């Protein structure tokens, strides 16, 4: 077996993203025991920074050891018990994932659908909430399969009128655009590591409020072996052990009840990623993502390409580009990776073979990377026989970056 060798890549996908070297350096530190006071302080620091990142005062803000899907499954599997009514508005692949998770938890799932590439008017969802009065509404905030950002700021209030809970997948939008947990009355939210936070996949920040906690604790069951006489078991206990939020509450609280061996190195990376993001300042970070998105869109348009549904609730960290006619999109992506070291993504479902998805997330959302991408992407298109104006693309991209910086809050307020 030869020594591991990793080729250099410019990763411009909607996840995973390139990792800030400072995160990689933090993750190279010595392993600490999971109950070492030095490490439990890191755990506490991470909880505090997760609260700030979600704009929440929730007590419960901690990471799940697993990918973002584990975070979604932990939330759904803890709140949905067999027979519970669940409403899922679907406008892309990851809405379908919520359907899958809720069905596996035994929920009675009702879906409402919007064409891929569009979003819902919140009034449509609120009308369905009034009709169904579901226990749970599960919705995606940033749908990377279509590049759409779904407005959700009015849904929490609507579902709370009927005693229900709003669960949000903010995996792709987290740390790249505002996710106002308290102001929007979101009950449980899942963030992402390998998207705009730009740390390795495998640890997922989540948060949920006290109301949500009270509901799931009716299903609490502490596992045999660490259970005490004070630990009661609910009649319809959460079926997953590893993704049981009620047991994880005991692990991430002063009780420190043993549940699993915490992924210490991943927590180091999470700590450094959150520290860097909060040091930058969230409004400044969100503005950076939006400016880079605008620069990339301007460059691609000037080259002669078409942005898919441009201006229609675009995510400010994902650009969807229509694949030019008579070009094999997958073959081009393979050539772009092998010959130029640049990775972009295709899409799914009805958009498979129709669009490419380009991510400008976290560490990759920088002027130098975007100009390099435009140059290499344009060169690859020319080599593939597609007529593009590469100079115009570079000039247009550069022009956006040369505009005077807007006040920190002004760009974000347009989202």
Structure description:
With 415 residues, this protein is α/β, with parallel strands linked by helices. The chain folds into 2 domains: 20-277, 3-Layer(aba) Sandwich (Aspartate Aminotransferase, domain 2), CATH 3.40.640; 282-414, Aspartate Aminotransferase, domain 1 (Alpha-Beta Complex). The protein contains 13 helices and 13 strands. The chain has helices at 21-26, 37-53, 68-79, 93-104, 122-132, 155-160, 210-216, 245-251, 264-280, 282-303, 329-340, 367-383, 390-402, and strands at residues 10-11, 60-65, 85-90, 108-113, 136-140, 142-143, 148-149, 165-169, 188-190, 203-208, 318-322, 342-343, 355-359. The chain has a 7-stranded mixed beta sheet with strand order 2-10-9-8-5-3-4, with helices on both faces. A two-stranded parallel sheet has the order 1-12. Helix 10 packs parallel to helix 12, helix 10 (282-303) packs antiparallel against helix 13 (390-402) and helix 11 crosses helix 12. The model is unreliable at 410-415 (pLDDT under 50).
């Amino acid at each position: 077996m030869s020594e591991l060798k990793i080729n250099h890549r410019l990763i411009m996908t909607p996840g995973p993203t390139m990792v800030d070297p400072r995160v990689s350096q933090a993750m190279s530190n010595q392993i600490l025991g999971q109950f070492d006071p030095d490490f439990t302080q890191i755990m506490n620091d991470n909880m505090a920074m997760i609260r700030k990142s979600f704009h929440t005062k929730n007590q419960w803000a901690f990471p799940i050891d697993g990918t973002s899907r584990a975070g979604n499954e932990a939330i759904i599997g803890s709140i949905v018990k067999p027979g519970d009514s669940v409403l899922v508005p679907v406008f892309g692949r990851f809405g379908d994932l919520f359907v899958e998770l809720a069905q596996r938890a035994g929920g009675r799932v009702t879906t409402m659908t919007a064409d891929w590439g569009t979003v819902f008017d919140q009034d449509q969802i609120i009308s369905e909430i009034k009709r169904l009065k579901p226990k749970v509404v599960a919705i995606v905030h940033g749908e990377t399969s279509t590049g759409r950002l779904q407005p959700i700021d009015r849904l929490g209030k609507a579902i709370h009128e009927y005693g229900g809970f709003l669960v949000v997948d903010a995996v792709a939008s987290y740390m790249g655009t505002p996710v106002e947990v308290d102001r929007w009355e979101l009950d449980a939210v899942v963030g992402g590591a390998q998207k705009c936070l730009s740390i390795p996949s495998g640890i997922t920040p989540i948060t949920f409020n006290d109301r949500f906690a009270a509901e799931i604790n009716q299903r609490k069951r502490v596992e045999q072996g660490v259970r005490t006489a004070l630990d009661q078991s609910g009649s319809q206990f959460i079926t997953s052990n590893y993704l049981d939020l009620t047991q994880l509450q005991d692990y991430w609280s002063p009780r420190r009840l043993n549940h699993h061996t915490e992924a210490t190195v991943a927590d180091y990376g999470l700590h450094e990623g959150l520290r860097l993001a909060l040091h930058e300042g969230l409004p400044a970070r969100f503005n950076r993502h939006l400016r880079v998105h605008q620069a990339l869109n301007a460059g691609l348009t000037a080259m002669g390409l078409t942005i898919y549904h441009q201006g229609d609730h675009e995510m400010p960290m994902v650009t969807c580009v229509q694949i030019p006619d008579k070009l094999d999109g997958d073959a081009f992506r393979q050539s772009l990776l092998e010959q130029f070291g640049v990775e972009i993504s295709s899409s799914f479902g009805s958009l498979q073979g129709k669009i490419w998805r380009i991510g400008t997330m976290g560490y990759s959302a920088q002027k130098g990377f975007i100009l390099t991408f435009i140059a290499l992407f344009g060169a690859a298109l020319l080599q593939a026989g597609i007529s593009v104006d590469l100079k115009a693309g570079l000039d247009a991209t550069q022009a956006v970056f040369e505009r005077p910086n807007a006040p920190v809050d002004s760009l974000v307020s347009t989202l």
